[in-house]
């Protein structure tokens, strides 16, 4: 029987220094707490947690410390990548124990976190250092690789947000075409659930833990009908990935029975 590793992807919480403060009318800390509670109920013992960036909107140490207090109850590794709303140095300082733009090995699985942040900009770009790391991982046929990045590496069909996407998508696509071990890419940034592909490799984005953006919109538009959420993934030893989205208000469900 093959083993399965269960992971949770939470992204774009846009937390603030004051957990009682609101951002764009959203009680962001409260929304995160609710999503966090759903994740904990569905996956009481995840094998890893992945944080997809835009963690602290005001880049405050207090915001990262508030998040670190939540992470402290977990008994699993954490992989985190920066979004355009993040301070990577503060992430490393305050999210103690988390792999910030690092990697995690879960059995045959290798999760690699890439930093796409361009300081002061909304769009994303890969660094040469990360491209070399990715090349090394993709060249190893013995590993099942899951790539984690904030900016999706393909357009999601929402024009205004695709305009602030990853600028070096062609380079990334060429890299992926040269490696057979990548089983999926997890991204945030777009505040909506999306599934696409680069060749045979699926690309998933995950809803924000706060407000959602309307899929297909040409100019900025919130998706007021879509609730905050998160994504679960079941990584099979043979390289298959099952995945799904949970949103606040969904019927309670235990995803992993092994806890
Ligand atoms: Fe965001």
TrEMBL record:
Keyword Lipoprotein: no
GO molecular function: hydrolase activity; metal ion binding
UniProtKB keywords: Hydrolase, Iron, Metal-binding
Alphabetical list of Pfam families matching this protein: Metallophos
InterPro entries: Calcineurin-like_PHP, CNP_phosphodiesterase-III, Metallo-depent_PP-like
Keyword Protease among UniProt keywords: no
Domain Calcineurin-like phosphoesterase: 7-192
SUPFAM superfamilies tied to this protein: Metallo-dependent phosphatases
Family: Belongs to the cyclic nucleotide phosphodiesterase class-III family.
The protein's name: Phosphoesterase
Organism: Salinisphaera japonica YTM-1
Lineage: Bacteria, Pseudomonadati, Pseudomonadota, Gammaproteobacteria, Salinisphaerales
């Amino acid at each position: 029987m093959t083993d399965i590793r269960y992971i949770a992807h939470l992204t774009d919480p846009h937390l603030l220094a004051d957990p009682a403060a609101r951002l764009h009318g959203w009680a962001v800390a409260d929304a995160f707490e609710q999503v966090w509670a759903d994740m904990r109920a569905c996956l009481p013992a995840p094998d890893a947690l992945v944080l997809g960036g835009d963690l602290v909107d005001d880049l405050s140490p207090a915001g990262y410390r508030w998040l670190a207090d939540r992470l402290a109850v977990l008994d699993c590794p954490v992989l985190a990548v920066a979004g355009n709303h993040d301070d990577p140095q503060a992430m490393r300082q305050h999210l103690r124990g988390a792999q910030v733009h690092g990697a995690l090995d879960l059995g045959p699985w290798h999760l690699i976190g890439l930093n796409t942040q361009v300081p002061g900009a909304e769009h994303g770009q890969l660094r040469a250092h990360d491209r070399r790391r990715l090349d090394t991982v993709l060249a190893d046929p013995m590993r099942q690789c899951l790539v984690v990045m904030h900016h999706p590496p393909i357009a999601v069909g929402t024009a205004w947000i695709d305009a602030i996407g990853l600028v070096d998508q062609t380079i990334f696509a060429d890299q992926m075409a040269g490696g057979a071990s990548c089983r999926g890419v997890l991204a945030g940034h777009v505040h909506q659930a999306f599934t696409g592909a680069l060749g045979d490799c699926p690309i998933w984005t995950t809803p924000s833990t706060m407000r959602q953006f309307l899929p297909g919109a040409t100019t900025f538009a919130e998706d007021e009908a879509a609730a905050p959420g998160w994504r679960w993934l079941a990584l099979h030893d043979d390289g298959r990935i099952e995945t799904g989205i949970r949103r606040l208000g969904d019927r309670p469900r235990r995803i992993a029975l092994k806890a």
